[in-house]
Amino acid sequence: MISWRRLGEHDFPLLRSWLARSHVARWWHHETSAEAVARDFGPAARGEEPSEDLLIHLDGRPVGLVQRSRLADHPAYEAELATLVPVPDGAMTIDYLIGEPGLTGRGLGPRMIRAVVEATWRDHPDASCVLVPVVAANRASWRALEKAGLRRVAEGELEPDNPVDDRAHHLYRADRPEPAAGPPLGRTGESRGC
Fold first, then answer.
1. Lower CB density within 10 Å: C or N end of the chain?
2. Considering the entire predicted model, what is its pTM?
């Protein structure tokens, strides 16, 4: 079962160990010192910024991280994505990692992504869509997005997280589902089956 909670400062040693793993470091390219992790993840953990760092659990065991945020809270990033597609009001984005290499390639990534995207519609009633850019070379990441039900809506150049990558990116999108239709109406305007 997939569940999550907000990342706390007491989780930073675990996060540091994940960021140092080669399969994570290759794509996240993040400093792993205690100071760097506290600097970059501390404000969200303390509720000082609106981004959400979600510690993902599988059957109660921490296995990964999903960052979720409104694009409007990051205007420069929003403007960069807008060079590829129109960014609707209320658009959100996610980033994600699986901490343990033995858990990659087993369908966990799509499950994490799908669960967080589905929860986004409840957690953020004003969220219109989720836009996720992925460096084109990271096939495992964009395949996970596809398996989670997101669709590719653009390809183009964006600044990569890791300077060894080129600027080629794929952009994926999930839209808020349409509300379910009510029961069909009878001739008199009354609901059938009530």
1. C
2. 0.89
